[in-house]
């Protein structure tokens, strides 16, 4: 029997929601399911950003690549997550959320300048990871009530969401990271037949 090693976008989104531990926001979900728009950002050939400036695009790429770094498969940058984010902001985000996300990028650079006297993308990887860990701990406090997260953590939570969704609905993420279980969905409640269970052989 031949098994397709690819999964659908909906299956990928279900797994991403489990990783996030929360529902995926409506704009991000709409972008991930928009197959037509997806073709535009998946290939870098002839692609140009429509919302993000070159510096903002690089900042998103650097941050996303720390969230999902390259290993034996390409990381977030290699999967084109930064292009996905630009398409998402342009085509699916309400204006208020778009400006809120862009302001969040500005805050990241402001934090880097206050600590390292340079933009985030110019900091060393160690410095970048240290700042991202601080943002992650603030956005996802252990044992805290999610509804009580400070408003300023919205940006990092949304960045993490769009990074995971963009990556795992990309060709690289869906076909080389997430794989279909060839045995199908596990079921532990299948009754054992009286004959001894040889029907499958």
Topology:
Layout (H helix, E strand, L loop, with lengths): L8 H12 L5 H8 L1 H8 L11 H14 L8 H4 L1 H11 L3 H22 L8 H15 L14 H15 L2 H7 L24
Helix pairs in contact: 1-9, 3-6, 4-6, 6-9, 7-9
Q: Structural class per helix/strand content?
A: mainly alpha
Q: What series of H and E elements makes up the topology? A: HHHHHHHHHH
Radius of gyration computed on alpha carbons = 20 Å
**Major beta sheet summary:** none
Shape: globular
Number of domains: 1
Molecular structure report:
- This protein is mainly α and 201 residues long.
- The protein has one domain (9-177).
- It has ten helices and no strands.
- It has helices spanning 9-20, 26-33, 35-42, 54-67, 76-79, 81-91, 95-116, 125-139, 154-168, 171-177.
- The longest helix is centred in the middle third of the chain and has 22 residues, at 95-116.
- It starts with 8 loop residues before the first helix and ends in a 24-residue tail after the last helix.
